[in-house]
């Protein structure tokens, strides 16, 4: 073999070695490439070197030096690639077990009270109601005075209401939003006012010091109690099911006249009596009535021209009777194991 042929063979090897080394995708492939390039048994470099003895004596020194520098370059490239592959490879003993069942993913859930609020809003939205909001720190006048509470009404007692000073209270119901809405928008008015309210109560199985309410208000010319009954009965059938029975009982609120409470047939026992409905077969779900003329006047409306009706419901109560939840406090515990199970 001549020196130029020897050098050409080395150059060819040096030229294609980097691509072959780079193409090794794992340590096994790397070992194969190493053996093919510089392996003692059948590596290409070894084969070329075997031709060294056949060269002219005076050419051997240069040929040997050339071969050595190619060898060093290839070994460097191999070492570099080996380090890359070793870093990417799974540690021995912890390789993936593809037969292992996947870990269940935790999906968030909507709180059962929020679910009720969303559904109520949706049902009334179909009837043309929009949303109105008011402050939770409210003037006593909006919470009581404008709503026709007499000055000595027991609800205004320090034992029942949280006073903030400066004539402000934490609103005890969402009814003040009735007055704020009527002051701001001329009839026809059809609004729903969801929000939190506060009472000076201790937690027990059926009471909480803070809870959500949903207020509804309709004011226009010629609005009657028949509209109230029809709309709320429609709501009950949409919410609880198309065969749900409702009943209206006379009641009293300072801001409505006449006033009523609406009961729906107990969904847990279908009316036959159970612990959720206290054996009565009925669940009270809301208070309602015709807006008192004094409230319309307090909001600046002519009570001879306009009439209206309003209702207030507690979505926590509704969630409780819907799911047969034995204790309202569970709704406040933020225990995801409990809250997780409710979906639409
Ligand atoms: N605000 C009343 C309550 O908190 C409920 C209600 C609202 C009653 C509107 C009649 C009309 O109990």
What can you see in these coordinates?
The strands form 2 sheets. The chain has a 7-stranded mixed sheet with strand order 1-5-6-10-9-8-7, sandwiched between helices. A 3-stranded antiparallel sheet has the order 2-4-3. The chain has 2 domains: 3-88, no CATH class; 112-342, Bira Bifunctional Protein, Domain 2 (BirA Bifunctional Protein, domain 2), CATH 3.30.930.10. The protein contains 11 helices and 10 strands. 38% of the residues lie in helices and 19% in strands. The protein has helices at 3-22, 27-38, 44-50, 60-88, 112-126, 140-143, 176-184, 225-240, 293-298, 315-323, 336-339; strands at residues 130-131, 137-139, 163-165, 168-170, 189-198, 210-220, 246-253, 256-265, 282-291, 307-313. α2 (27-38) runs antiparallel to α4. The model has no long low-confidence stretch (mean pLDDT 91). β7 (246-253) and β8 (256-265) form a beta hairpin. The chain is rod-shaped and about 125 Å long. It has 344 residues and is α+β, with helices and mostly antiparallel strands. Bound molecules: phenylalanine.
**Arithmetic mean pLDDT:** 91
Class by SSE composition? alpha+beta
CATH topology description of the largest domain: BirA Bifunctional Protein, domain 2
Query: Radius of gyration, rounded?
Result: 41 Å
Please specify the SSE layout and strand pairing.
Blueprint lengths: L2 H20 L4 H12 L5 H7 L9 H29 L23 H15 L3 E2 L5 E3 H4 L19 E3 L2 E3 L5 H9 L4 E10 L11 E11 L4 H16 L5 E8 L2 E10 L16 E10 L1 H6 L8 E7 L1 H9 L12 H4 L5
Parallel strand pairs: 1-5
Antiparallel strand pairs: 2-4, 3-4, 5-6, 6-10, 7-8, 8-9, 9-10
The structure holds phenylalanine (PHE).
């Amino acid at each position: 073999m001549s020196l130029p042929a020897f050098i050409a063979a080395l150059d060819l090897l040096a030229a294609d070695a980097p691509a072959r080394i780079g193409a090794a995708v794992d340590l096994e492939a790397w070992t194969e490439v190493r053996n093919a390039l510089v392996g003692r048994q059948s590596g290409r470099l070894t084969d070329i070197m075997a031709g060294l003895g056949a060269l002219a004596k005076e050419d051997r020194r240069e040929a040997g030096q050339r071969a050595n520098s190619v060898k060093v370059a290839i070994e460097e490239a191999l070492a570099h690639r080996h380090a890359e592959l070793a870093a990417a490879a799974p540690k021995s003993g912890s390789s993936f077990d593809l037969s292992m069942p996947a870990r269940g993913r935790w999906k968030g859930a909507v709180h059962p009270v929020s679910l009720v609020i969303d559904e109520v809003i949706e049902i009334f939205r179909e009837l043309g109601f929009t949303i109105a909001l008011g402050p939770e720190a409210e003037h006593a006048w909006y919470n009581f005075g404008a709503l026709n509470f007499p000055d000595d009404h027991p609800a205004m007692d320090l034992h029942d209401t949280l006073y903030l000073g400066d004539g402000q209270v934490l609103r005890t119901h969402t009814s003040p939003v009735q007055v704020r809405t009527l002051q701001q928008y001329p009839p026809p008015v059809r609004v729903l006012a969801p929000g939190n309210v506060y009472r000076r109560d201790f937690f027990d199985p059926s009471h909480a010091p803070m809870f959500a309410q949903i207020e509804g208000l309709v004011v226009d010319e010629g609005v009657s109690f028949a509209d109230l009954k029809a709309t709320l009965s429609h709501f009950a059938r949409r919410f609880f099911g198309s065969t749900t029975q409702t009943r209206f009982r006379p009641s009293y609120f300072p801001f409505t006249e006449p006033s009523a409470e609406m009961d729906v047939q107990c969904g847990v026992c279908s009316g036959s009596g159970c612990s959720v409905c206290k054996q009565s077969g009925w669940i009270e779900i809301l208070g309602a009535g015709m807006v008192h003329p004094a409230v319309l006047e307090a909001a600046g409306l002519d009570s001879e021209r306009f009439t209206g009706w309003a209702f207030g419901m507690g979505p926590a109560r509704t969630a409780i009777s819907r799911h047969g939840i034995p204790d309202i406090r569970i709704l406040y515990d933020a225990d995801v194991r409990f809250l997780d199970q409710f979906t639409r």
